[in-house]
Amino acid sequence: xxxxxxxAVIALVLLTVFVLxxxxxxxxxxxxxxxxxxxxxxxVNSEANVVTVTEATFDAEVLxxxxxxxxxxxxxxxxxxxxxxPVLEEVSAETGVKIAKVNVDENPNLSNEYxxxxxxAIYVFVDGExxxxxxxxxxKENFLTVISKYQ
Length: 151
Fold this sequence. Notes:
This protein is of the alpha/beta class and 151 residues long. The chain has 2 domains: 1-47, no CATH class; 49-150, Glutaredoxin (3-Layer(aba) Sandwich). Helix content is 54%, strand content 19%. It has a 5-stranded mixed sheet with strand order 1-3-2-4-5. Strand 2, helix 4 and strand 3 (98-103) form a beta-alpha-beta unit. The relative contact order is 0.14.
């Protein structure tokens, strides 16, 4: 019985040492994955036309813009908003369409003006005129289909 306890304690100590020193490679693997993901996001952002819009800049960035603008009404605490953000960045990088991001918590007047009651809410503007909306975290193909109607 004493030997089993001793072996269990030794195994626990070794396991702790391995975990703390990264001998299993878990921590390093996670760091590599995070680094690759950050690089992929940076690559998309470098090609994407994504701007942060406020109540003060909405008119200039959206209503006075020529062409298609997708306005992403979002919030930092919203899980689906975080899911759709990289999708919209990919769409922008592929199509050249401007993505205007409006944080609903920081811009409540815009949210009220456009009747935002669910997020993410992506509003489609063409030459400054509202055309339609996509509510929820939709796949990239949905956004590409909507954009193709107005090109």
